[in-house]
Input
Amino acid sequence: MKSILVMNGPNLNMLGQREPALYGHSTLADVEQLCRDTGDKHGIAVECFQSNHEGELIDALHRAGRAVKEGKMIGVVFNAGAYTHTSIAIYDAIKAAEVPVIEVHISNVHARESFRHHSYLSPVAEGIIVGFGVEGYALAIDGLVAKLGSQ
Output
């Protein structure tokens, strides 16, 4: 069975506690269950990973790129949190690993502070889901499967 990796970056372990008016009341465990349930609908295994450390996220992208090349993985659904707006290293990792990524944001980053309007990841992403709350993760999995699931 092929898989999808759902990756979450810094502070997403605080979902349900951090600014619930903006991010909602769902916890990271709730998001991970939603992702696994969505994967089950497609016959796809979903692996989940969260880290507050940029290097660990980069290492996970490298592993995912190898798994895609081996035909074991379809790609990555990635909410990089604030690293979206700051990390050229994550951009480079996605590009170097040649891993298909769907970029996800719970809130509409374009309706927020101006520093959140720029994404270093968007130019190397297969697609972007923004502003649909945690349901955006399910939409990203659906989109990744629709676009690349048969490859």
The first helix runs from residue 20 to 23.
